[in-house]
Structure prediction request, 313 residues.
Amino acid sequence: MKTQFIVHPDEISKERIDELKACKINCLGIHPVGGKNAYKTLEDLVALLKTESFRSLLDYAKDSAVVIEYELHSMGYLMPKTLYNLHPEYFRVDKDGVRNPDYNFCISNGEAMEIVCENAVTLAQNLYNSSDNYYFWVDDGHDVFCHCDKCKSISPSDQALIITNAVQRALRKFNPNAKCAYLAYMCTITPPTIQKEKGVFLEYAPFEKYTAKGENAPTLIEQEQAMLTPLLEYFGKENAKVLEYWYDNSLYSSWKKPPKKFTLNEKQMQNDIDFYKQKGFSYVSTFGCYLGKDYENLYGKPDLTPFTNATKE
Ligand SMILES: [Zn+2]
Prediction:
């Protein structure tokens, strides 16, 4: 199985890359902090990617045969909020009927879509040492899609795929091997109903599994079956990837620093991975944020070998 460990940009070090190599983890995922300000953290990453020091780290990863991929909530970056004053029509209408530059954009506006696609190509060119897999996700939130008269009957999953399809077509022109992820996460966890573009693949992030609460919460396996079966029927197994939270100490620290001491639920991870293998996934990834240098100074090095052992064939 192909494996990936995802961290925030400031958590990348030579030591971390050495560890990934030693643990035979194939890919280092770079993830700027999500949430409402994801467009700013992505701006910061793009600036960082122009520095010699960060590039030399990414070259070190490449020389160590550790692949680089960028996992990005990117719409707020691809549709610059500075355009709002001149072109409010580019932006989404929120649930209250107000044009709002908070998240995503109006997918029925052709000019807006063109801008997003042009900026996606520029962003892809700036993603130093990136693999051919691109993760230009929609913005991070519960209600991020457009409710204008033209968009309101289009489901969140279809809105997300319309964007992903357009970005995929644009990226293919600059990189014929480009493949774009459809992120199945929160309100896009149900499959789309429109046709997907060639090269678009499933990235399944079962966040709900970690937030379902109460007596009536379904058992994990029931919930996973219910979410995954229709997604795999729609996308197929080819290039399908799981994005998990087994090592996500930002989640366990409630996204607040300082990081809490992390304890891996090894049994749960093994059960999950066995289940994903049985479902036909060939690429398994986990967030590993809040385990950087500040964590090590407090609690020592996190152990990544259980992840390697659990994904062995
Ligand atoms: Zn719209």
Q: What stands out?
A: The two ends are 7 Å apart (CA to CA). The chain is about 40% helix and 15% strand. The longest helix spans residues 156-174.
